[in-house]
Design goal:
Shape: globular
Number of strands: 3
Helix content: 25-40%
Order of helices and strands: EHEHE
Distance between the termini: 31 Å
Strand order of the largest sheet: 1-2-3
Radius of gyration: 11 Å
Largest sheet: 3 strands, parallel
Length: 65
Amino acid sequence: MRLLMLAHRIPYPPHTGDKVRAYQVARHLAVRHDLTLGFVIDDAADRDGLDALRGDIRDLEWGGL
């Protein structure tokens, strides 16, 4: 099944409660489904997490900084 999940900001690195929850849900869904994860990057330093996040979730759509 193809799924779209929207998060209010990038869920990586998962070091705060909202990021941990979004990351774990997305990772779980990506195992069994064709997941597209959409999110906003609100801190330029978080862009470093894109490559790591692509290791678990193939299709990322993002906007912001």
